Amino acid sequence: MFTSCRRGRFRALLVILTALPFLFVLSCSRDTDQRSSSDGAPLQDVLTLEYSFGAEDIPDDYLLVDPHWFGLAIHPDGNLLVADENWIKVFDPDGQPVQRFGGTGAGPGEFRWARYLYMSPEGYLCVFGGRMGFTAHFFRPDFSYIERVDYFSVQPYRDILDSLDLRTDRPESVWCLGEDERLLVVGTQDRDSNNLEHREVFLFHLVGNTLTVLARYQQTDALYGQYGPVVSMDALGKLLAAPLPDGRAVYLHTFHDSRQGGEELQYTLTLIDLESGQRETLSHSYELYELTWTRPLPNEELRERDPEQFRQWEEQWDLVDEGIAERHWSVPVLGIETDGPFIFVFTSAKNDSGEVLTDVFNADERSYVGSAWFLGDYYGVRIADACLYKFNEFRVEDDFPRVDKYRIDPRVYGRR
Questions:
Q1: What is the pTM of this model?
Q2: CB atoms closer than 10 angstroms to residue 150
Q3: pLDDT class for 130, splitting at 50, 70, 90?
Q4: What class has domain 8-291+328-413?
């Protein structure tokens, strides 16, 4: 049952809703609440830059040109994959070229939009177009081709969405977990485009023709005005998920799965066995941080050219100002990444150096390991084998693209 918060002119702006019950889960689940606490301060200076590669001293075919922030993946054998120029460029753990596959085209294993890379713990790869394309391409651990799916025309979840008067165009995230096994995060909206308040997000598990709804929530990721979304930001809340070894996954909705009232503030991760549906939870405390945004400066040229349109835009920004003021607090979690059974939770907390407070959990032991200050720019980070990989700030600094590899201090994993 939904509950909503609506005040006058906020009717079309933002609805804060409780999570929906899991209507389509096919098996029973067992919830356990594992409280976590830490007696020590977050670890500092936990990342050591080992090397950067991709801009020089490699063959021209492997030079990085314009990779997407999430076009990076780490294979279980330690090789690095980069989606760039519609090729998947493969490098060894030392950054040396190994092979490349794909290329621009419409044939098997070729791409029109290769932007996002999602790697399973077993080495199955999904190459996805993201917002730039509807098609996902799936590959085995040896990079042999499985299939491609155009999620504009092929939607295995269509019957469920139709029954709820919902529609979607593409998934938000797609993992290939096996030959015919997929994990998908899918955002939806009402079939009636005027009904801005009915927007949901699902976590689906697909095995062959069997589809299970693992989680279902009301969307909270945007502030809406009279004509549609005005501002979308992670700090408003979104559904995050990632696969874990041994047929498991972790997920949380960063708004609905956080407790923002009472004496204790907590967010809750859910661990789920994908075969049995058994669930366990890990809850952790956090501190509140204000939700902020920068209102665009008035467009004086538009004011002169079209005063009515200028007035409408300013009214939209007024609605966003009021929506931000009403929500007030950022969600506690902005991203997650996994390294084997370890779950890295990037929070909204930052220190004076701009580093992000990162909480670490062990899914095997159902425990909180500790926290550490990580790089301020967590966007697109990949973590594997106690190393952190990310692209340099080539777009901001007008530099050549490179992949930076950092060694993570063993203490982050609870090792001394």
A1: 0.88
A2: 13
A3: low
A4: mainly beta
